[in-house]
Amino acid sequence: MAEKEKTDKPKVTFLLGAGCEVEYGIPSGADYKRDTIRAVNVKDFIKSLNDKEKNDILIPNNGTILTAHSTSVLYQTVKDLSDGDLQKIYNFDADQLTIIKKYLAYKNGEYDKQKDKDEIELIRSSFQEIYCNQFYLPIKDNESFEQSPYLNSFLKEGSFYSLIDSQFNYLRNPGENPDECRRVIKLYYATYLSLLKGLSKQQNFIPSGVTIQEKRKNLLTMLDTFENTILSNVKKTYYHKIKEFSSINPSFIVTTNQTRFIEKIFTTGDFAYVHGKMDLFEDIRTKRVDTLNNFSDEDFIFPFISVQSGVKPVICSRQIHEYEKATNALLDADEVIILGYGVNTDDEHITNILRERLLSKKNSITYMVYNDGSSDTDKISNEKQRIEKVMSIDITEKIKFKFTHKFDEVLSELSK
After folding, report:
1. Strands 276-283 and 289-291
2. CA 276, CA 52: separation in Å to the nearest integer?
3. Most buried by CB count within 10 Å: which residue of 67, 194, 272, 345?
4. How far apart are CA 136 and CA 66, in angstroms?
């Protein structure tokens, strides 16, 4: 009788993101992006896990993944902002605003490339000067972003995807594209270090050991220690509430997080890691994916995780299997609950699955909007408009929006 009662209940899939791990001290999406762009202390960390004497892969230097010519980053960041927002967020003066408007007009094809050649060159050089002086050089020189609101906003909310996406193609032939691959390697390790610092609460992290193999094994051991320590200290989180719910309701978890809290809390295996895991790495040459300690000294490896970008190039049969599990869970569930995850264009592989679910008339998606208990109804309205724009479909009556402080009530209603 009890088993029949369980199967009669709706199948629920939880789509979980970084917001579920804020209580563990893991950086949220914006902080994660900032750490990735700054790429502090990546060089020594990469050297600790790869034997330079046995490889011809270039070790990246410390410092930002940006270059002096990465003006596309500023262009993408400002193109959808109003004049008021440009002044409020980034402190542009009147002359700078004029240059930015002209640059946007140039990118929109409003100048004749032959007739306005000289003016275009002046616009481009002036725009690059704004980018370099106000953003690139302060970031490169590691100036204190905490003291600069506009610099902090740029690091946390800027659009870096064109810069990042343009680098991935070079992974096809790392030996022929050493400089470009070095930038990609830096990107992945900077992302990994952001997660690792959140777990360890250390700023300069180098695993102990004399040999490369010792350092790799010690990193896995310490990763275990960090995660287990956090789990022992933080007992009541969204994960624990979901576990309690799942003990009596058929459930599946799709996570975009790369920590291993999910598999340590939920031991049934009913979960899918769609963005990789922190114990997995990839050999840049053979593309083999395995746990960190299963590589030889000759293998040049980088973390097998997805970074914040418009494309997800690191793929293998293992990850395809994770996508398959996630796809089935998101499309077949009676209910989907999105928690701690923002539906965005940079995760189109997930957005497309959610859109397919809605268009197939399985309208049961509940989207939890972060709220501390206050009655800020505008947050739901704004989030609905944002997601509708991302999905390019009418989501009215297709997605139910609830505040996160009502999460227990949502679970209770599904348990009836």
Report:
1. antiparallel
2. 25
3. 272
4. 7
What single string gives the DSSP state of each residue in 151-217?
HHHHHHH---HHHHHTTGGGGG-TTT-HHHHHHHHHHHHHHHHHHHHHHH--SS-----SSHHHHHH
Report the distance separating Cα 14 and Cα 244, nearest Å: 13
Residue 132 φ/ψ region, left for φ over 0, alpha for ψ in the -120 to 50 degree band, beta for the rest: alpha
- Sheet containing 301-305, strands listed edge to edge, beginning at the edge strand earlier in sequence: 289-291, 276-283, 301-305
Helices (H) and strands (E) in the chain, counts: 18, 9
Best CA proximity match to 279, nearest among 293, 261, 266:
293
The residue written with tokens 């193999």 in the block is: 213
Give residue 373's pLDDT.
63
Q: Which residue type is seen at 29?
A: G
Type and span of the H or E element at 329: helix 317-332
**DSSP helix/strand/coil, 69:** coil
Q: Which of 29-33, 58-62, 353-357 has the lowest mean pLDDT?
A: 29-33
Whole-number Å distance between alpha carbons of 177 and 183: 10
Tokens (6 digits) for 47: 């050297």
Instruction: Give the pTM.
Output: 0.88
**What average pLDDT does range 193-198 have in this prediction?**
91
Burial code (b: 16+ CB inside 10 Å, e: under 16) for 256-267 equals bbbbbbbbeebe
